[in-house]
């Protein structure tokens, strides 16, 4: 297998995180982010912090920024609801915030419990003043995450990249993931 064939959009996200000097990555367990989390854990330049709940990542991001470091929060759309109270902190304290969100409750979802938050995620984020970028094609991942990081760290914005279910693949009871 050549390097091009083994390349993956999660590898491209990791490259963008390094390009933008991200030093801390916060996450809860998530199959959609697992390859990216593994890259970050193996990196000597990125500190990964597992969270018990997603909202912890917002407070840590504020602290990282105050300490002179850039960070990113990885989560699934079902965890966005846990962050709403603290999401306002990004605007109140005016610090840049970048989150990458694997989506559920969309394209081919089998779990009916995932639909409400999956459908509400963009609206909830926008209501909290977060810029929402969305990607459902692997060929657009790198440019989208790069643009989001620029908006966050150069433009001082709160930005979420929604990694749509068409991109991450659908889950099935009998299979791990498929496209």
UniProtKB/TrEMBL annotation:
Q: Which SUPFAM superfamilies match?
A: Thiamin diphosphate-binding fold (THDP-binding)
Keyword annotations? Decarboxylase, Lyase
Q: Where are the transmembrane segments?
A: none
The Thiamine pyrophosphate enzyme N-terminal TPP-binding domain covers 11-89
Q: Which domain of life is it from?
A: Bacteria
| Annotated InterPro entries | THDP-binding, Thiamin_PyroP_enz_TPP-bd_dom, TPP_dependent_decarboxylase
Query: What Pfam families would the database entry show?
Result: TPP_enzyme_N
- GO MF annotation, one: thiamine pyrophosphate binding
Q: What name has this protein been given in UniProt? A: Thiamine pyrophosphate enzyme N-terminal TPP-binding domain-containing protein
What organism does the UniProt record list as the source? Answer: Reyranella soli
